[in-house]
Amino acid sequence: NITLRATTLADAAALPAIERSAGQRFLQIPELAWIADDQIISAAQHQAFAATGLSWLAQADEHPVGFLVAETLDSSLFIAELSLHQEWQGKGIG
What is the DSSP letter of 91? Predict the structure, then answer.
């Protein structure tokens, strides 16, 4: 049971681990393996995205499994990060 909703401030603590897990997929591609250890969005940064209404959470049975954070650029919305926990990738959530 997958649901999508706006991210709350309380959700922010769980999101860095999701991003770190998502990055592990890149270990399978030698040219992109560096992404697995790249800098991730901190919980405080996630709270800032949530506070501005620019973060959405994917849940599976009420457990966070992914997120999307965005930024506004002029009159457009830019996806800054889209991450799904590695166990939930390939299931059509993204």
Answer: S
- The CATH H-level superfamily of 2-88 is Gcn5-related N-acetyltransferase (GNAT) (3.40.630.30)
For residues 37-69, one letter each, b for 16 or more C-beta atoms within 10 angstroms of the residue's C-beta and e for the rest, the string is: eeebbebebbbbbbeeebbbbbbbeeebbbbbb
| φ/ψ (deg, to 5) at 56 | -130, 145
> What does the pLDDT average to over 5-14?
97
Closest listed residue to residue 55, CA positions, set 19, 1, 2: 19
Q: What is the pLDDT of residues 66-89, one digit of tens each?
A: 999 999 999 999 999 999 999 999
